[in-house]
Amino acid sequence: MPECGDARLNETPVSRKVEVGGRQVGGEVDALMCTKCGHVMFSGPALEAFEISAAAALIEHRVLTPQTFRFALKALGIKSKELVTMFFTIPETVSRWEAGTIKIGPLCFFPLLMLLQETMGGELRPARMLAGMQTKPAGRR
Question: What is the number of structural domains in the chain?
């Protein structure tokens, strides 16, 4: 309930941004807005959907950093212990990926993107993703 106590709420898309490792990703999230005071309320599922979409966008734009990796895991609700099983690795490796002490191979992001896209109910684009992994991100030599 808004602070003004008014119960007249309209459903409206609201611009929202999230920053991950110095990169911002924006989009619109459905929310309820008070017609009197402008107070905005987001539902949990709407915010979760936004985070999933933001994580997918970061990976699709090849922002393949430890911060993106952690953000994608959080958005998907995947715990490190589950990742060990998914990637056939050891807990220490996952811990080092998350901390950024060892480089995360680009192909480690591929299954995360597939899970994000599946969760969004969108088109799965594995060939496009794999093709993009073969070249260096813009600005690097």
Answer: 1
